[in-house]
Amino acid sequence: MPSEIALAVLLLLCAPAVGSFLGVVIDRVPRGEDVVARRSACRACARPLAPRDLVPVLSFVARRGRCASCGAAIPPWLLYTELAATGAALVALAAGGGPLQVLLNAGLLWLLLALAVSDLQWLRLPDVLVASLGLLVAAHVILFADPGAAVLGAALGAGSFWGLRAGYRRLRGREGLGLGDVKLMAPLGALTGPWDLPLMVLLAALVALAAALILGARAGHTLDAAQPLPFGAPLCAATALVHLFWVGAI
Fold first, then answer.
1. CA–CA separation, 94 vs 245, rounded Å?
2. For residue 152, what pLDDT is reported?
3. What are phi and psi of 113, to 5 degrees?
């Protein structure tokens, strides 16, 4: 019991900092900027941020979401990412398992979160994040799952999305599914396995459709087939749900 409490405290203390780092990765990788060596600075005035400006969650609240130097608004999605990373740690703890499994699940959720936010923010799924997810999924499969089922799930996931991408382009003469989604389906398929893969894709499709309808209704227009949609985000959310809770419920 003491070790479980210590693990929970450690995860919850580290989670906001992890979310802050994920925000840096999401903001810089699509721009081709260095993630490690470059100091954090205001995008508007380029003033380097002081340590007091880098405290996760608290700095944003204390500054009321604005730069201390020029008063420019700090993108609120950075705060949401820090809060969501903390929520992901709570979910990993709630899902249960041994300490190693909880840590792996937290890492998986953090990477799924980073990919989802990157897709929503940039309509991109950076290769470095997909590859990092693949490494964690591989570790999870080796320790806790059936490698054969994982390989089959990865092949079915990536293969089916590749087929959908090629078929849509042939029929409509334009891209209907991003290559990033095809790459992402390899680790997602490995994590869910071949039997839960259809459920995961169905949940993701329903979430994407509902979000598109809601956003379209708010904007006062119907769905536009040419409008790009961030399908990677609902794929990541559906995978987290199926991986952590569906298997344990059957």
1. 10
2. 97
3. -60, -45
